[in-house]
Amino acid sequence: MNRYWNEYQKVIADNHFFYERSCIRQTFFPGSEAAFLRILREELDKDIFDDFRQHTCTGIGYHSDIVPLETTMTVVARLFSLMTEHGYKNYVPSCVTSFGVFTEITHMWNEKPELLEKARENLWKACKREFELPENIAHASDIIYKFRNELAKKMKYRLVNRFTGKPLRVVEHIGCHYAKIFPDKGVGKAEFPYVLAGMIESWGGEVVDYPERRHCCGFGFRQYLIQENRGYSISNTKKKLESMEPYEPDFIVSNCPGCSMFLDRWQYTISEMEHKTYDRDGYGIPVLTYEEMAGLLLGYDPWELGLQIHQIQAERLMDKIGIPYNSKEKYRAASGKILRNPEKPANLLT
Amino acid sequence: MKKTAIIGAGPAGIEAASVLAGSGVEVLLFEKSETPLSNLKDKAFLFPDFSAASDMVSELEDKLLKDNITRCFGTEIVEIKWKGTEWQLVSGKSEAWYADSVLIATGYSTFDARRKEELGYGIYKGVVTSLEMEKMIREGNIVNGHGDMPKRIAFLQCVGSRDEKSGNHYCSKVCCVTAVKQAIEVRKQLPRTDLTVFYMDLRMWGQGFEEMYRTAQEKYGIDFIRGRISEAAATFDDRVQIKTEDTLLGMPLRTTVDLLVLMVGMEASAGTRTLGASCGIGGEYGFIKTISPHLYDNDTGKPGLFAAGTCKRPLSIWDSINDGRSAAIAIKDYLDTLP
Prior knowledge:
The structure holds 2 protein chains of 2 kinds. By secondary structure, chain A is an alpha/beta fold. Chain A has helices at residues 25-28, 32-43, 59-63, 69-85, 96-111, 113-127, 140-146, 148-154, 176-179, 195-202, 221-224, 230-244, 257-274, 290-298, 315-321; strands at 17-20, 48-50, 90-93, 136-137, 169-173, 206-207, 251-254, 287-289. Chain A is globular and about 60 Å long. Chain B folds into 2 domains: 3-107 and 269-337, 3-Layer(bba) Sandwich (FAD/NAD(P)-binding domain), CATH 3.50.50; 113-264, FAD/NAD(P)-binding domain, CATH 3.50.50. The mean pLDDT of chain B is 96. The A-B interface holds A 1-2, 4-5, 189, 191-192, 209-214, 246-247 and B 114-115, 117-118, 121-123, 231, 233-236, 241.
């Protein structure tokens, strides 16, 4: 296969990162960001700072025309001021939309320095803070991509079906705001982003190239924020699931909060509405974040990674890879108490 | 006898060589390939009269059978230098020749469709270029990626031309009519295959072109849809799913075809770029720049250095032949001024 797009690489910082968490990922995938920090600190011995004073980037509000641009710039400026205060220059957002916002705002500031000056003025008026622009902005998935081969050496498991010996077939889905706004800011650019594909290949899997690979996951803000539009959201997801179904993927991996969420949860909704599931046996296709994928292969506890929070359960996937898990611990809360099992869906097997 | 070196044995270079040799000029004809007319030999039939390209190849090759034309094929000229009274030509093997004047006729190369990744060339079996389609037409073997007869074929215009992403803002001039010609040829060989041409606008600039376009629709039942294909992807059974918009109806369109033919545009060839840069006459997009497109379209502004054919811009075959002839007259006028 021709890999012309492999030539599209980007500069990704090597160490000393300022981490910015996502507004929604900690709810959707509560173990992913913790896993990212653990991977960087414990597996890669990197310095990454996680500031408890951080806050939204306004991304969803900005893209929904609720938050004005000037406000977004001031909020971004405050986040950069936290990075500056701690002496960091490499900014790493967890969320793809945040990555898009930071890339776009810094691009605007570079093109129009008067906007940068205005943001500095607004920030000073608002909270008497100052900031420097980051030297490097990389999405958290870029960092894992950069060190994918180093991580591969530490992994206990590979993306291989232990029963057949064949690579697992993995659908990768890239958030729109990763490379569709500024293609040259994404590894592999917008047409064939390589950031997740690179991880999958390095870790033994096989990327599924299906017709609707680039299609929206259904998280388009205007599709789901307005309840009346949610039919558009689920129809986009359905189109993707139908397109990937003949390839019988073992799981889906994404680098975007919304993509992972909607590709996972809408499978339940479709199964309730149409009695349709997208794997042969009726369990649905598991959807992982890239941190969860990496964490599983590194041997992290699947329940600490938060896999039980997903709609489509991952036990069958773990069985294929050969990852052990303790079913009795699946719903143990942080308090130590075992929670009761969630209600089972009517049509999706678990 | 005055001597002219011609670099490139395509239609323009051969026509110029023939005219100059007929005027008593000694001609050194350089060609990097072992044989002349390699681009023309790729063609099956020529628009708008559907004459066989092989007939034109024979006629042009016959024009080289003159005593005062020395063929230096398999020789790539990489540098041209003005030495005060004459031009020195240096090959890649550091051999040198001298001439009173030089005609650059180094032609074009086709756009590398891999640069438009979203169209899947080089990735999916069912995506081919217009060059590959021309070969299939010539060999009477039009097949999809599995060697089967295609039931649906789409042609996409302007691949690498009039395109912001590839950086080629210019029109390649011949792709519109070539797609119409190829679709008709395919229809003749595969009467039951659905054929659709996707276009931005059809530039039927030449004599007989508009009639061809009308005939393609009325007699051959070929569909024309105004819209660009934004994305091509392989389906599970190795067909090609395309996404586009019918901009006349204002409707998005998603369909599947057995073969997607990319009408690849013209770019300055590597030789054109090298010599243009080495002589300081490189223009936009790597093509050779002449003094004026009106009265002095073969003159480069350097004494005795001329250009003809598609090294200047995309041209049809007949444009190139006429341009080679025009360059020969300009060169003869120049040589007559020399002592």
